[in-house]
Amino acid sequence: MIGVFGGSFDPIHFGHLRPALDVLQALDLQEVRFIPLNVAVHRPQPAAPGSQRLAMVREAIQGQPGFVADERELLRGGASYSYETLVALRGDLGPRLPVCLLTGADAFRDFAGWHRPEGILSLAHLVVMQRPGACGEVDDPRLRGWVAERRAEDPEHLRRVPGGCILFQDVTQLDISATGIRALVTRCLSPRFLLPDRVLEIIEREGLYRLGDPP
């Protein structure tokens, strides 16, 4: 069973890395694939080019067993849709291996508005990373229905089928945002201890996120 974690990673930081490690360990995954998006669909476009965001991901996960950088969305080009990424992954992995798509609780609340959400559930499980003690409630009626039908209480249940379940997984939630990190750099303040030193080295060496940099 593997995990798939997509995002801008602009830049990647400990608020991404610690929850991913929590899921890797709690679900005993073989790996978690970090997949930087190419063109955002439901959010502002990344400030840093894809090549630099990929480089930051690679440096951030270096030395952590089970963490893998995957550049398929950058290579594919165009808008980045989770459904298309999962279709491509299934082409590589086959139809039987359980795949878990990791998402944050805030993003999950909008899942019904994603591109082909039911198609996503046909290809993978959803693992919703939430703060400890959260109850996993949702407001959207369509999404609430999917949760009622597909909710898995036991992570081991995910191993029995390739996809289709929704698991709410408690993780360590750190109040860190890429937006806040970029704002610090723009103001010539250090974001050290919010992200790996190797990522900070790339930001400083490449002059990323400084005032006047193009979006």
Can you walk me through this structure?
The protein is α/β, with parallel strands linked by helices and 215 residues long. The protein has one domain: HUPs (Rossmann fold). Helices cover 38% and strands 15% of the residues. The chain contains nine helices and six strands; from the N terminus they run βαβαβααβααβαβαα. It has helices at residues 14-26, 50-61, 72-76, 82-93, 105-108, 117-123, 141-150, 178-186, 197-206; strands at residues 2-7, 31-36, 67-69, 99-104, 125-130, 166-170. The chain has a six-stranded parallel sheet with strand order 3-2-1-4-5-6. Strand 1 (2-7), helix 1 and strand 2 form a beta-alpha-beta unit. The radius of gyration is 17 Å and the shape is globular. It starts with a strand and ends in a 9-residue tail after the last helix. The model has no long low-confidence stretch (mean pLDDT 94).
Task: Give a quick precis of the structure.
The chain is α/β, with parallel strands linked by helices and about 220 residues long. It has helices at about 15-25, 50-60, 70-75, 80-95, 105-110, 115-125, 140-150, 180-185, 195-205, and strands spanning about 1-5, 30-35, 65-70, 100-105, 125-130, 165-170.
